[in-house]
Every structure is written in structure tokens, then in C-alpha cells.
Design goal:
Elements lengths: L9 E3 H9 L5 H11 L6 E3 H15 L30 H4 L7 H13 L6 E3 H10 L4 H11 L6 E3 H15 L29 H5 L10 H13 L1
Antiparallel strand pairs: 1-2, 3-4
Length: 231
């Protein structure tokens, strides 16, 4: 009923898009989900197709591939932030969630962080890259780890973001899937505030050098170029 306000048993693309955006997934992933769910390409989902879209959202949030093969896999229900409630992602809902990075692990990650000579408490992609490559994980997984851990999108990792990166790397090494979007429990407490990034504007010019890729992901290009050396 939240989406099908006219109770017509079908959902228009515009209404569904607004609702699906609350999942916190990227537009790229949501576009893929829509294409798979809207089987006849009419821009309208019937109830069955809408359920398919919801299941695919749940798959993406739990690190599974967005594909029809994932529909039969057991996943928890999809999570949406209700924009009508004052909680939202950055409100009390997520600040009450304990951080997934345990204290003793954080101490280990901090030691690695300090050993990499951070400048002003930040590590550049170049310094993080060898540590990521050391894990011998596939480059696309490492790219996703970087994308998720660089929470403020400044091309650098601070101490907490680095801990998120290490946590995700260890998850991947334990054969746990790396999620498509950062779960609330993994967002460092220091980053859990209303997401308005006043410093985001000056970053845009510097991101033009990576305009070939969709997002500014400094290390991924470097990763791709350098991986043969680690074999």
C-alpha cells in the first residue's frame, strides 16, 4: 500500500524508484534490479514483479549477485529507511547499532594503519593498495571494499574507514560475500551523522582525472594495472 497508492495492483516506475531508493543501493544496482523485475519492459510492475524487485534488493543488500538465480536463495527481508520517520539512516536507528568492528580487531587494524605512515590521520589509495593486494582477493572485490570503506568519498581512508576496509577484507577471506552497500552496523560511529558533506564540492574537480570510471575510485585502476606483479 505504501507504493501502490491507487491500489491498482501495480506499481509505476516513478513510484517504485522513489521507494527502492530507500534501500540505500546505488542507482546502477537499482537499474539492474528494475530491468530484471520489469519483464515486459512496460515501466510498470505487477505485484509478482514488485516482489521480485524486493527480493533482488534483499540479495544486493546481503552481497549476493543481482540475478534471477539469486531469487531462490534464502535472504533476510530487504531493509528500507522510511523517509517519513524521523529516524532515517543517520538518525538514532543506526547510532544505536553496535559497530561490527570489535575492539580487539580495531586495535590490530589501527596498528597496521599507523605502520603505513598516515598523513594528517589519512591514508591515500596508494598506501592502502598494497595492503589490499596482499590479501590476494580478486580485484573487483577489492574495488568494492575500497568503495564501501571510503565512506566520505575523499579518496583517502581515515582510521575508522581503514578498519572497515580491513573488516571487509577479512570477511571476504572467510568466504563471506562483500555487501553491495555498507550495512548500518559497519558504518563507523564517527560517520553516523546526518549525511551532509560540506567538503564534497571541492572534490569534484579532482575527480575528473578518473572520469573514465563512473565513480572516483582511485585505487581500482591502479589495482587492475598492478595485479600481475603480485602473482
Amino acid at each position: 500500500p505504501q507504493v501502490d497508492s491507487a491500489n491498482a495492483g501495480r506499481v509505476l516506475a516513478s513510484d517504485a524508484a522513489v521507494f527502492l531508493k530507500k534501500s540505500g543501493l546505488t542507482d546502477l544496482v537499482l537499474g539492474k534490479i528494475w530491468d530484471l523485475a520489469d519483464t515486459d519492459g512496460k515501466g510498470i510492475l505487477n505485484k509478482q514483479e514488485f516482489f521480485v524487485a524486493l527480493r533482488l534488493v534483499a540479495c544486493a543488500q546481503n552481497g549476493l549477485d543481482v540475478s534471477l538465480n539469486s531469487l531462490n536463495l534464502p535472504v533476510p527481508p530487504p531493509r528500507f529507511t522510511d523517509t517519513n520517520s524521523p529516524l532515517l539512516l543517520s538518525g538514532t536507528a543506526s547510532s544505536d547499532v553496535p559497530w561490527a568492528v570489535k575492539l580487539e580487531d580495531k586495535a590490530k587494524y589501527d596498528a597496521i594503519f599507523d605502520s603505513l605512515n598516515p598523513v594528517n590521520g589519512l591514508l591515500s589509495g596508494d598506501k592502502v593498495k598494497p595492503v589490499l593486494l596482499n590479501s590476494k582477493l580478486p580485484v573487483d572485490i577489492l574495488g568494492r571494499v575500497w568503495e564501501l570503506s571510503d565512506i566520505d568519498r575523499d579518496g583517502m581512508l581515515d582510521r575508522d574507514e581503514f578498519a572497515v576496509a580491513m573488516f571487509l577484507v577479512y570477511c571476504a577471506l572467510e568466504k563471506e560475500p562483500v555487501p553491495m552497500s555498507l550495512p548500518a552496523a559497519l558504518v563507523p560511529p564517527s560517520k553516523r551523522k546526518p549525511v551532509s558533506v560540506p567538503g564534497a564540492m571541492p572534490l569534484i574537480p579532482s575527480a575528473t582525472s578518473t572520469k573514465d570510471s563512473h565513480q572516483p575510485l582511485p585505487p581500482v585502476g591502479i589495482l587492475a594495472a598492478k595485479t600481475p606483479l603480485t602473482q
